[in-house]
Amino acid sequence: MTMVPGRRSSTFTRLLRHGFTDPSAAERLLDLPDLSSVRSDSVLLDALGATADPDLALRGLVRLVEAEEAGERQILLDTLVTAKPLRDRLLGVLGASEALGDHLARHPRDWQALVTYEAADLHPGVTEFEGELAGADDPDALRVGYRRCLLSIAARDVCGTTDVAETAAELADLATATLRAALRIASAAAPDDAAQCRLAVIAMGKCGGHELNYVSDVDVIFVAEPADGAEESGAMQAATRLASHLMRICSDTTVEGTIWPVDANLRPEGRNGPLVRTLSSHLAYYQRWAKTWEFQALLKARPVAGDRALGEEYVEAVSPLVWQAADRENFVSDVQKMRRRVVDTIPADRVDRELKLGPGGLRDVEFAVQLLQLVHGRSDPALRSGSTLEALGALAEGGYVGRVDAVQLDDAYRFLRAMEHRIQLYRLRRTHLVPDEEPDLRRLGRSLGLRTDPIAELNQAWRRHASVVRRLHEKLFYRPLLDAVAQLAPGESRLSTKAATARLVALGYEDPAAALRHLEALSSGVSRKAAIQRTLLPVLLGWFADSADPDAGLLGFRKVSDALGKTPWYLRLLRDEGAAAENLARVLSAGRLAPDLLLRAPEAVALLGDPHGLAPRSREHLEQEVLAAVGRADDAETAVAVVRGVRRRELFRTTAADLIGAYGTEESPAESDPGALVDRVGSAVTDLNAVTIAGALRAAVRAEWGDTLPTRFAVIGMGRFGGHELGYGSDADVLFVHEPREGVDEQEAGRAANRVVSEMRRLLQLPTADPPLIIDPDLRPEGKTGPLVRTLKSYGAYYRRWSLGWESQALLRAEPMAGDMDLGAQFVELIDPLRYPQDGLSDDAVREIRRLKARMESERLPRGADPTLHTKLGRGGLSDVEWTVQLMQMQHGRAVPGLRTTRTRAALAAACAAGLIPEDDARTLDEAWVLATRVRNAVMLVRGRPGDTFPSVPRELTAVGRYLGYEEGHVGDMLDDYRRVTRRARGVVDERFYGG
Length: 996
What we know:
- With 996 residues, the protein is mainly alpha-helical.
- The protein contains 45 helices and ten strands.
- Helices cover 61% and strands 5% of the residues.
- β2 (218-226), α14 and β3 form a beta-alpha-beta unit.
- The longest helix has 32 residues, at 674-705.
- It is elongated, with a radius of gyration of 38 Å.
């Protein structure tokens, strides 16, 4: 054909218009002699253009024609252009699957399997597939026969003759026929083994559920019994050999490729257990040892090959155990944890392309449906289907899920499964990753009928359906609980009270009747408020169920909603600010302290929706707010009431940030550094208490003396207060120092200072709705019997003449916190020589410190307390670590400036940097100190009152564990870990503090 240089041929243009991406290559292929009889046939070109990948389809057709014997080629081409069913099927497959094109090039006569188009051919079942595979008497013949059957399934799929569910069912039927053929081949190879045993193959997973993929592991369980007269041990060995041979037949790769791996790891004990067991052995395991996920897997068990009667006996025996699984302790949390573990194993660079396991993927739908089946299938046999889509339909029909939700989820699941099918069909490889190359995305989009802009349309549809799944998969579980207490339209199904109660119990609610009352109160009516609540509650219920105390979370939410229900911004905040609702759910269900603080002033919920609302405010900012409020108040009590209100609000901010950081949210993971959490809490609570004391001091002075007290006055923080290590339940240990102003009589100044102290303490402990702040001055010279306030001169005289070693040690934590900071600095200058002695400590002083510590250990530990679990005085606890660090500070503080700090962790790090303690030992002490501090904080958060040991109430202990990062059911691991960490710390203390 003569062409004018630079001009396109008309064929080139037509090919471009028909969707070819490489028209030049396609034109060359059409010019091959073998295609001369059809190259100008418009019917062929139109058919190629209708495929997912016209270039691939044409290349596959050329390879097929070239592979055919010369006398058969024209028959193929003539049939192709005259028989539309064959044309659509054959070219559709060639344009969607490179792997099946390879098969046809190796076995060109197999195209004839696509010629017939009878009614029976449209929806074949196991019987038809068995007939196709009947002649396969060796593994390679089985592989070829399997691919021939797969060719016909793929043809019906890509032509739209079958929908995605029918295709999945046909693939499962083909797998059933293949397993039977493989067992037949294995039995023929070892007739003696076959004669000794009855072997049944139980399909699990997608094969058992009649919803198989093109390329998937086929999950199975093998069960066997001795044949009549056979001895059990020999029979089980024979059955194991047969089962192993069956697996090899299907899994091995030869020149004819492979069929699919047969995976028997769902069997009892997994890969560590015997491949084949008797029925009684299976039952013994399931009744005693099986975990929740194993019962979930058995939901899809179906006998498919071997001894039919034994297979049915197996399913009949295990079925009651499956439907009792929801009665197991921690059932729902076990299933949800398994789902989270699956997501956590996905590499970060793949999670956005993961069609099956990623967020909004196929597994989300399957897990949600299976969870509902296991909860409600106990009492409703209609739900006992292994098919996800059939089960979803039955759940909607029975009112267990909303009809609209079920329709949306069904559509999304079908679309995602269709994507999965077409991705795998291309090369017949087991993958669930959406491709990222444009040609692959284009082929995938076109195979799903998206032709205008295949890539953009595909991405848009995929993201839309994944978003539907993400939004609905947990809501599916909780939404019907609202319908159970709502007025429904005539004809609508609802969850019965009994079913709603069962679901709430499965979720961990101890008082389901009360929970239903709360739901009714929150969501009933036709108001806008009730409508928003009905939108929010399904998601909130899921977050509550993920906590240690769902009942408390729901009750707290009702109380907050009752208090703020008429406030226009409240529900809008929860609905529109994604993080606010989840943050509120975490805070309300994690313990008593944070909800108590919130319910005293519910408007603080606004902090949870502000992206920066949980960040601690600086001391300068807080002090400015507090002192301004005191200046506006009419009297001291009003002023300190405002100050204590600020403290309560900021305590809530701190507890909420701590809980959310410890638990994590869907958008941000839990804080990975527990030391950072401890430091943030310690600094925030310390700053807050310092500002509160400063406000009370200003209010007391202003009420009696106006702007100026007759004496300069400073509050010195001691203990954890001075160390910036306060917990939620800590008192504020302090010393008070004053210095008479010029011209003021010392006695008058002393009386004024004492009156200020008494008034401050009174104001901060007045009975109000806000938590009190206890000021504890017992670390002062002479203790409780000594004067509350001293001048600098008096402190100096006492410390020079009477000070004991423990008092110098206590001064290591002294830091000015409020009042006259210059006076505070003078106090620090006064005590520095005592706490950091010029020549360190004498041997006698060290022995005295050790003797005092040993006496404290034996005398101060509460009677009956477990010394391995007491966070303050127990083995390797706070006291052990702090005394070890403080001994190094007193010995080396004069020489090592870094040790001159009131903070334990900072001093320990400085000691390590100076070579005073090995890095491993320092790390061990730091880990123990952080852990013990977190336990104390957790106890206060959970119980609402301080404690130095783990709670004895199981639910409270579980809540402490959740705060520390332990999932439900792992309380024992938490206690073991605490003992291990503190035991190692005590070993370091024995060596570093007591000298080995």
